[in-house]
Amino acid sequence: MHKTIAAIATAHGVSSISIVRISGDGALQIAHKISHKQEIIPRYAHLTSLYTPENILIDRAIMIYFSAPHSFTGEDIVEFQCHGGMVVAQEILDTAMAYGVRLAEPGEFSKRAFLNGKIDLTEAEAISKLIEAKSVDAAKILARQLKGELKIFVEETREALLRSLAYSEVMIDYAEEDIPDDIMQSILDQLDQLTYQIERIVDASHRRKGLIEGFKVAIIGKPNVGKSSLLNALLSYDRAIVSDIAGTTRDTIEEQVRIGSHIIRLVDTAGIRDARDGIEKIGIERSLSSIEEADVIIALFDGSRIFDEEDEKIISLVDGLKEKECIVAVNKTDLEHRFDRSRLDRYAPIEVSAKKGFVHLTQKLENLFDSIGQGDELMLVTARQIDAVTKTKLSIQEAKVPLLNGELEFFSYHLQEAVKMISSISKPYDSEEILDKMFGEFCLGK
Ligand SMILES: Nc1nc2c(ncn2[C@@H]2O[C@H](COP(=O)(O)OP(=O)(O)O)[C@@H](O)[C@H]2O)c(=O)[nH]1
Ligand SMILES: [Mg+2]
């Protein structure tokens, strides 16, 4: 019975229903015991009473039995859809445990689904990321991956590599100097094509990572331009302390906020200037490192004051951020203008007022994230997947040198490595440790 596992699959808290899941050989037997029902039909929603081992009524609930192998895990599964809240689901779980099942570890249902061949690793990872997804676009990408999009890419890449390997087998019959040019060229073309595809996918995956994790947007500027006020205004509540004393914000503050269909991570930073105070200096260092980590920077200026040397410093910071999306905004437009806007002309600055309104800014952010989310490019959704294709690319690169030198054995060694690496995306070769680590990051009950 200890191989039968159970968990509450829904979030804890007040809700209309909760779901308790049991998977394993003992699931059906437990369903009989809890429900006192003699006959349990697979895939039928039984409305039934549930009882503790002492025959005390727990709830009237829906009970569904999925018989192996036609279930998520491939094992017998029983699911109870009971009334929500903190108590009922826990009582069902306690009862199941009293009958001998054990509490599932995080991700253990998915791990069993993988081990029983119901899903491959790309699908398992898509499930886990879908739960975390921070935008509708990410959910779409992951749903496609759940349907096997990445699995197909892995298969196609693997087949292309095997084709190149097969060609090289043909070449072994030739003396080194007689290898026909056209065969050599077509292998090289094939490998270049694969390299190019992999590079594109890795690039797109980095660019679009924020769709899943939430884009990180950092507000930077010299002290007192209204960074904290803008964060508060975007959050619609006073999270950061606002004051007209320069140097009030000494640490970075990160909060989540919804922009259109995206949940973003908004970061308020300490004003950047030449500070003497040790704590302020540390804050400024943190501001600079949050710039590094951010996907988008909002560089904020104060329109009610004269453009000065400190603003100039922010501009040169912005100029140094070639790779990053940077939005330049002039704040306090509700006050009299004293700022020389021509200094910012080339950045097409947006006018905002943390006090009176900033729709142009939210619109610009929304358009930006929407454009990143558009298109149906394939995307790698975990560091593990990116690592595997990057290693595949390196092995392909390493294979080219011996190919050009006619050292076919070395060529085929590196290509076989590439095959192994690309295959590891859906099925790891040194499994146990990787699997434990991966599924351990899943939600409980998943
Ligand atoms: N009139 C006006 N004052 C603002 C605006 N944004 C910020 N302030 C004021 O500017 C001062 C500095 O704001 P704060 O958000 O602390 O600036 P930070 O140092 O960049 O975080 C405070 O007194 C704010 O009330 C705005 O849009 N309009
Ligand atoms: Mg501040």
What would you say this structure looks like, in words?
The chain folds into three domains: 5-119, Gyrase A, domain 2; 123-210 and 382-426, tRNA modification GTPase MnmE domain 2 (Four Helix Bundle (Hemerythrin (Met), subunit A)), CATH 1.20.120; 214-373, 3-Layer(aba) Sandwich (Rossmann fold). Helix content is 46%, strand content 16%. With 446 residues, the protein is α/β, with parallel strands linked by helices. The strands form two sheets. A six-stranded mixed sheet has the order 3-4-5-2-1-6, with helices on one face. A six-stranded mixed sheet has the order 8-9-7-10-11-12, with helices on both faces. The two termini are 20 Å apart. It contains 14 helices and twelve strands. Strand 8 (253-259) and strand 9 (262-268) form a beta hairpin. The longest helix is centred in the middle third of the chain and has 33 residues, at 181-213. The radius of gyration is 29 Å and the shape is flat. The chain binds guanosine-5'-diphosphate (GDP) and magnesium ion. Residues 221, 223-229, 242-244, 248-249, 271, 331-332, 334-335, 353-355 line the site of guanosine-5'-diphosphate.
